[in-house]
Amino acid sequence: MHYFHYIDDQLCCEDVPVLSVAQAVGTPFYLYSHRTLKRHFEVFDSAFKDIPHIICFSAKANSNGAILRIFINEGSGIDIVSGGELYRALEAGADPRKIVYSGVGKREEEIRYALKSDILMFNVESSQELEAINEYAGRMGVVARISLRVNPDVDPMTHPHISTGMKENKFGIDINKSLEEYRHAERLKHIEVIGVDCHIGSQITQIAPFIDALDRLKELIASLRNEGVGIRYLDLGGGLGITYDQETPPHPADYAKAIMDRARDIDCTFIFEPGRVIVGNAGILVSEVLYTKTNADKRFVIVDAGMNDLLRPSLYDSYHKIQPVELKGRKSILSDVVGPICESGDYLARGRAIPGLERGELMAVMSAGAYGFSMSSNYNSRPRVPEVLVKDGMFYVIRSRETLADLARGESIPDFLR
Ligand SMILES: *Cc1c(COP(=O)(O)O)cnc(C)c1O
Question: Which of 55, 63, 99, 182 shows its CA 20 to 30 Å from the CA of 287?
Fold first, then answer.
């Protein structure tokens, strides 16, 4: 469900023509629909209204401060994976007591920053990390609230690069060893155990893997409580998938129902860390066709956005729908849509039947709101593109286009080269 649609053959975001935004900010750019973002958050949040819960939007899916603030204003917490994301979350006005901190490689200054900010909890991913947090908290004279991120060894049946909850992945602590680790954590002076956590992967399009994971966490919680370990939070992570192409992921309401059916007897506050399902279909990447050409019978549409702007097709071979900004009732042509980057892996779509786009016209890469801008880089010395938010018939630049000077910012020439 989203608010990108054609009005009189013109692609619009809500009721704002994409073309009018392009004329104001140039191409390429990311365009988000406020109505879609807000609706997605509300649908997800209200689906869990019958159980105590906190939604912690996963900042890495889209870290723009204005986007974070939309959710924060709706009561969202934030799931962070770095000190940088903690900074962004706090700047956007997040309640620290609704921030959870995941990630396998937390550095000392990041841990200290989180302790100083008094975040809700660390999702601890290894024994050594637990020791480190205990040590830093001790030196600061505070107590760190933690849960262990356990690896429940369930197959999320998604792309291997985005599956995180199988025992061969780098994430979390083997669930079979976690009881021992929890006993140890209980003995640490500057650690307060408050929860259990898992995050099994991303773009998951079935309910079963979540339920498998939940069942394993429930068993663990029962064992922990038997030993007197007070578990108050059950964090089930994120990972719910969206429709990019033909996928039929469960509706958040069905996902929520399946979870709540098994949750009523667990006396815990639930935490969910959705990212993609909230922002994925709420954003598009708009690009101009620079040239078209045919090599070895293959039609190439060369556009001004590349893998540095949207990495997902190159990184995961992921599918994003390509749509012309202006429909002209054309017949489809099999095409590769490629960017200007000097890499053969620089493509946005391959072997795709799309309308015969021509030089100078605009096209949209759909469902680019998650892991789009947040994964972008300056590769090939390309300034990062602007982000624009549409609300109530107006549009707002929520991040401006980088300048050429931005590209060299922070660099310096040592004296011996002068
Ligand atoms: C990436 C991530 C999420 C969000 O995943 P989505 O698939 O975007 O919902 C949630 N929790 C953790 C720990 C993550 O690393």
Answer: 63
Residue 13 annotated in active site: no
What would the DSSP string read from start to end of 343-362?
STT-EEEEEEEEE---TT-E
Confidence of residue 169 (pLDDT cuts 50, 70, 90): confident
Atom nearest to 123 CA in ligand 1? 13
* Residue bearing tokens 């590349």: 306
Fold annotation for 4-32+280-407: Lyase, Ornithine Decarboxylase; Chain A, domain 1 (2.40.37)
From the CA of 261, how far away is ligand 1's center (Å)?
A: 23
Q: Which of 1-5, 26-30, 67-71 has the lowest mean pLDDT?
A: 1-5
Place of tokens 């954003």: 283
Q: Range with the lowest mean pLDDT among 131-140, 324-333, 382-391? A: 324-333
79 lines ligand 1 (CB under 6 A): yes
List pLDDT tens digits, range 74-109: 999 999 999 999 999 999 999 999 999 999 999 999
Q: Which of 13, 56, 268, 342 is catalytic?
A: 342
Strand-strand pairing, 173-174 and 191-197? unpaired
Cα 14 to averaged position of ligand 1 atoms, centre (Å)? 27
Q: 144 CA distance to ligand 1 centroid (A)?
A: 22
**4-32+280-407 and 95-274 share one CATH topology?**
no
Cβ of 237 less than 6 Å from ligand 1: yes
What would the 3-class secondary structure string for 92-106 be? CCCCHHHEEECCCCC
